[in-house]
Amino acid sequence: xxxxxxxxxxxxxxxxxxxxxxxxxxxxxxxxxxxxxxxxxxxxxxxxxxxxxxxxxxxxxxxxxxxxxxxxxxxxxxxxxxxxxxxxxxxxxxxxxxxxxxxxxxxxxxxxxxxxxxxxxxxxxxxxxxxxxxxxxxxxxxxxxxxxxxxxxxxxxxxxxxxxxxxxxxxxxxxxxxxxxxxxxxxxxxxxxxxxxxxxxxxxxxxxxxxxxxxxxxxxxxxxxxxxxxxxxxxxxxxxxxxxxxxxxxxxxxxxxxxxxxxxxxxxxxxxxxxxxxxxxxxxxxxxxxxx
Length: 292
Hints:
Helix content is about 60%, strand content about 15%.
């Protein structure tokens, strides 16, 4: 329409097509033609405006339906994940209460299993709370300057025993004093969840390595292992909430199915992005950025 207006203005100001002389139309029929063109243009503009509004409404409606479907699926997944540990806890406790003469060794085993399920339930609720905080209260999450090198050094100490028990090797190649602007709790969640994921799924004897490269406005981290890896069909869904490749093994080791979702959301919240690949030589490689 802008082009049409430009040509209409030219033909109003210049009577001949050579455009050498400035002269307004002197015949009424010419002005009628211009008026007709303006009316047609206004009609087309109105139709385009109505079409754009309908398209916006349609897109908004489809987006709302998609979000509602995702919420329903998330609610169903949460209910399913909560149901398992709660049912186990109730089952063990009911057995203990209904059989007061139960062997002390068996009773002790049931109490230990109940405690494990309670810990799993607590971890699940904490992960759900973390995701909700990032989804609905991201604007009130406090930010400060965090030494990522020191933060990961703490994680190394916390996981040292289980790394040794699995016969793994950890190569911490992070430079000293990597400083980023972010939330300490969420930054801890990023590195701890990646570490736990490697420990739980890379397999016995795997080598875990983390390194970082400084960019102009961010740090680029590479977290990789040479373990079992996963097939390409799962890579595109690995960050989905409650998505598990091996559901039985995930529950056996106490996974909530939310760890990598928290990683991706936390990285995005800090202005970065994350990708995952499974090299031919095996294992998984996560590459992500965090703004300085």
